[in-house]
Specification:
The complex is a heterodimer. By secondary structure, chain A is mainly alpha-helical. Helices cover 55% and strands 11% of the residues of chain A. Chain A contains six helices and two strands, in the order ααββαααα. In chain A, a hairpin with a 2-residue loop joins strand 1 (55-62) and strand 2. The chains are: A mainly alpha, B alpha/beta.
């Protein structure tokens, strides 16, 4: 699936929920199911600033494809991170750089997050794009 | 001790309390961050801008006189409220932070030299840490820290041993913004004074709870913010003993703080004006006085009493939740309750409570060293005001229970 298809799938999933409680319960479940994170990458280098909870984001680049892994100390944040990984991970740098991210608003996450909190969310998206940009530049120069 | 108004009447004075948050009635339990404003303040601010706006201490004209009079009357209201000895001991600033920075700069310029020592406590807000650190850096002085117990009580024995012949000033908070602990500032001051050392008391979290008497405490400086005591934003107070203030150089230069200016030499105005450079926030000062008048009319002791009763209810309710950890368990505390429900992150807790319409603060509360002391990354803090209700406290307890179920 391409990035937009994944976003649409997430929007569909969230569309089934009746109220905010179900949406957050789902986020919590996603947070619980977030894959393991290599403890060695829990360093300041991979820590994202601007979040109320701690988020570490680690990129790897193989065969032209970026894979992200991430970790957070808060469960809801882990859920949000899991969604972002689902959207961004497994794509080429160019696909990530060019992606238009619309699912966050569509699933009512942004409107439910205060500015400082959504800064954390936006900081994650920004960081993922920055990694993609860096890999893209690397590709073009090699 | 009874409030002079019913809780319904009180809540009607605070229009914002009828706000809906995410479609639910707002339950505002973030009063430690800022307090809501009664109509008596809001209407007054409105009236000032409509009828009595001109620059203070400047003009010979009617409006300027009117507003200057009211500004100086506000100073007197603040004096009476904290029981200062003289009106000129009340300096209007932009808030607690500005007040502490003023003292750290002016006192530092006058009295701090290389190798001198400054004492603060381990439960300070960053506003009462960083200005002193900056001073220490400028003057190559040393910062010493009074430790505290797990219950959140300052170790006075350790404090005594920190006082040396190099100690120049002690700066402690009256009430911890995280733990709610009411520190024995009177004792701390007496001990410092025995060594001839002045003390600054940070009143940002005590002024709103009714019990401040600077002459009884005998502190040399007492500072607080208007917005935390039901007054406007951007106004604060620096109380200093006249003898002390007269000795200190001004922190900022500008209009109104001068007696005579030539390019060769400027002489300064007398206190309090020496420390009020530029156009002050005079509307804020008058609004602050209205807020203090509101509390006085309500009954300051009754306010404190009601908050204690709500605190007891919150403490009992939250304590009954399995796995909850409460930070700040001394009985001598204000209506601030910091907690973590089991291993659930403060951010997760705050997010879910917010969806229920409950406003709490989450995070380090600008007290990172305190968090480090407990080995945690933050807490959830519910800070209660007299306008909160028993039902709201029950809703908080119920909300936290729900959180523990969701994250179980």
């Amino acid at each position: 699936m391409n990035i937009n298809e994944i976003q649409d799938q997430i929007i569909d999933e969230f569309g089934q929920f009746g109220d905010w409680m179900e949406r957050y319960e789902y986020l919590i479940d996603l947070g619980r199911s977030l894959g393991p994170f290599d403890e060695r990458h829990k360093t300041p280098e991979y820590l994202i600033e601007g979040c109320q909870s701690k988020v570490w984001l680690y990129p790897s680049f193989e065969n032209g494809i970026i894979t992200f892994s991430a970790e957070s100390d808060a469960l809801i944040t882990r859920g949000i991170v899991a969604l972002l990984i689902r959207v961004f991970s497994g794509h080429t740098p160019a696909e990530i750089v060019d992606a238009n991210i619309y699912f966050i608003e569509k699933i009512g996450l942004r409107e439910n997050l205060s500015p400082t909190r959504s800064n954390g969310l936006l900081a994650m998206v920004k960081q993922m794009r920055l990694y993609a940009l860096a890999y893209k530049a690397k590709q073009e120069h090699s | 001790m009874r409030l002079t108004k019913s809780i319904e009447e009180i809540r009607a004075d605070f229009p914002i309390l009828s706000t809906k948050a995410h479609g639910k009635p707002l339950i505002y339990l973030d009063n430690g961050a800022t307090t809501q404003k009664p109509l008596q303040v809001i209407n007054l601010m409105d009236e000032l801008y409509r009828t009595t706006n001109a620059n203070v201490h400047r003009g010979v004209h009617y409006l300027s006189d009117r507003v200057s009079e009211r500004y100086e009357a506000a100073r007197e209201t603040v004096r009476a409220y904290i029981n200062a000895g003289a009106t000129e001991e009340i300096i209007f600033t932009s808030g607690t932070t500005a007040s502490i920075n003023t003292v750290a700069f002016s006192f530092g310029e006058r009295y701090i030299h290389e190798g001198d020592e400054i004492i603060i406590s381990g439960m300070e807000h960053h506003a009462n840490i960083v200005p002193w650190q900056m001073l220490c850096e400028r003057k190559r002085a040393k910062l010493k820290v009074i430790p505290f117990s797990d219950e959140g009580v300052l170790d006075l024995e350790a404090y005594r041993s920190l006082l040396t012949e190099r100690t120049r000033i002690v700066a402690v908070t009256h009430v911890s913004n995280v733990l709610g602990t009411i520190n024995p500032v009177k004792e701390i001051v007496a001990e410092a004074h025995r060594h001839g050392i002045p003390v600054l008391v940070d009143g940002a979290q005590s002024i709103q709870h009714g019990f401040v008497d600077v002459r009884d405490i005998d502190c040399d400086f007492y500072v607080f913010s208007g917005h935390k005591v039901y007054g406007p934003n951007g106004i604060g107070v620096l109380y200093g003993k006249a003898d002390m203030l007269n000795e200190l150089p001004p922190c900022q230069g500008g209009g109104d703080m001068v007696a005579n200016v030539t390019f060769e030499k400027t002489t300064y105005n007398v206190i309090p004006f020496k420390f009020e450079a530029g156009t002050t926030n005079f509307t804020g000062a008058i609004g602050l006085a209205a807020a203090l008048d509101y509390l006085s009319a309500l009954g300051r002791e009754a306010v404190a009493c009601r908050e204690q009763s709500l605190l007891a209810r919150a403490t009992a309710g939250l304590s009954a939740i399995e796995g909850i950890r409460i930070y700040g368990t001394t009985p001598h505390k204000v209506s601030v309750i910091s907690f973590l429900p089991g291993t659930i992150h403060q951010y997760d807790t705050g997010m879910i409570l917010d969806k229920m319409g409950i406003a709490v603060r989450t995070g380090t509360h600008c007290a990172q060293p305190l968090m480090e002391r407990y080995g945690i990354s933050g807490t959830v803090r519910a800070s209660i005001a007299f306008y909160n209700t028993e039902e709201e406290i029950e809703a908080l307890v119920k909300g936290v229970r729900k959180v523990t179920e969701m994250f179980a």
